Structures are given as structure tokens and as C-alpha cells.
Amino acid sequence: MSTRPGRLSLFLIALLFVTPPILGQSLEVGITATLDRVEVLHQGEPVVIQRDQDTFNIVTPDFSMTSRPCPPYCIQPMSAGPGIETLGELEFLDYLQRAGTDEHIVVIDSRTASEYARGTIPGAINVPWDRLHFTSGATPADVQGYLEDFGVIFDGDFHDFSRAKTLVLFCNGPWCGQSPTNIRTLTNLGYPADRLKWYRGGMQLWHLLGLTVIRP
User: Fold this and answer.
1) For the whole model, what pTM was predicted?
2) Which of 47, 72, 96, 170 could bridge across to 122 with cysteines, CB 3.0–4.6 Å?
3) DSSP letter at 104?
């Protein structure tokens, strides 16, 4: 009898190499050498964040542009302000995980509602940047409402930030000024710098690394 594999056997062997791994199996494209995927909560439901397993995948056209007009799309500094921590992807993933179980951590997509609707990072809520920016139409009542959501107490004269939540903000990328603008507004109001974090890479680097994006 011939020991050469038949066509069906060859097909099954090939299938082993193209079938996507199931949960619990290691992935070809991991996040780090020891971390394949991260599970976070988005609107109370578990979502798995991992990298795209297509090793020929390329970044979506929306985030492939290199030369948007500046202003307004100018390169942002590495620091959003004194005492404010700038996060890389791994540190940001840690906050995404913690936000699912710790009510004192809030991950905020500072982009417009329409941008958020086209796709966001799992675990983020949308607080459009202009709703926290007085010169862009936000009223004191708007801003006060958000501050209360963030754990800030206002007695009619002064803000008490002792119970303020840790806010982790991001927007479109290193050329996007939406989240830095919100961070400046918050710090000008007295928000503690050590409770503000900034994921500078934003959606562009998130897409560039092939990480999971969802539609809210």
C-alpha cells in the first residue's frame, strides 16, 4: 500500500495551518512573547483584545495618512503636562483590564461621537472633547456634570477632588489634540495630575499594531 498522503489528507494538513486558534491556544501574533490576548469588559460584556492574525494585514486607510494639515493636526509632545503619565500600549492594556473591575478607573475616548461610532477600543466610554471645552460650546453645567461622573464633589463654591477617579484618555493618535485639550481643561479646573493618564498612540497606533477594535 502506498504511504503517500492522499488529496484529502493533504487538505486536512493544510487546514491545520490556516484555522484560527481557539481561546486557550497560543496565537501566532501575540501581544508580547508571553501574552496572547487580554479580556476586558465593554458595557458590561467581556471582549477579548488580541492582534490581527493575518500576517499580511495592513492598517486601515483612515489611519494610513501621514501628512494631515497642521494646524490643527499637529504632532503632540510626549507629555500632556507635569505629573501626567504617558502610556504605551502595554500599560494602557493594564488600565483597560483594571477598569472592568475598578469603578475608580475610567477609560475615555475623547473623539467626536461620530468617530467613536465608527470604531473604538474595547472598554472605553465616549466623552467627546468639545463637551469638556468651554470655547467649543461646552457650558459650565456640561462640564460640572462630567466632573460629578468622575467623582468630583462641588459644594457650590469649591471642587473637592479627594475622590476623583483615575481617567485614562486617548484620541486619534500622536497628531490629535482632542484628549490633550481635555487634559488641559481638567488640570486647569484643579483635577489631580496623578489621576490623569494619556495613551498618546491613540487609535492610529492601536490600528497599526492590529489590536481589536469594536463598534459600540
Assistant:
1) 0.87
2) 47
3) T
pLDDT tens per residue, range 100-130: 999 999 999 999 999 999 999 999 999 999 9
**C-beta atoms surrounding 37 within 10 Å:** 16
User: Is the CB of residue 207 less than 8 Å from the CB of residue 213?
Assistant: yes
Coil vs helix vs strand at 98? helix
Give the domains, in start order, of the chain with CATH numbers. 38-208 (3.40.250.10)
Q: Which amino acid is at 56?
A: F
Residue type, 149: D
Q: What is the pLDDT of residue 12?
A: 38
Distance CA 116, CA 101 (A): 23
**Spatial separation of the C-alpha atoms in residues 120 and 134, rounded to whole Å:** 25
Rounded-to-integer distance, Cα 30 and Cα 52, Å: 9
As beta bridge partners, residue 160 has: 153
CA 152 to chain centre: 23
How far is the C-alpha of 185 from the C-alpha of 159, rounded, in Å? Answer: 14
Q: Would you state the cell numbers that stand for residue 141, as one nine-digit string?
A: 453645567
Q: How far is residue 91 CA from its own chain's centroid?
A: 11
Asked whether the beta carbons of 167 and 108 are under 8 A apart, the reply is: yes
Identify the segments of the chain with pLDDT beneath 70.
1-25
For residue 26, give the DSSP letter.
Answer: P
CA–CA dist 67, 215 (Å, integer)? 26
Q: What is the largest CA-CA distance in the chain?
A: 92
Summary count for the chain: helices (H), strands (E): 6, 9
Of 100, 102, 121, residue with least CA distance to 169: 121
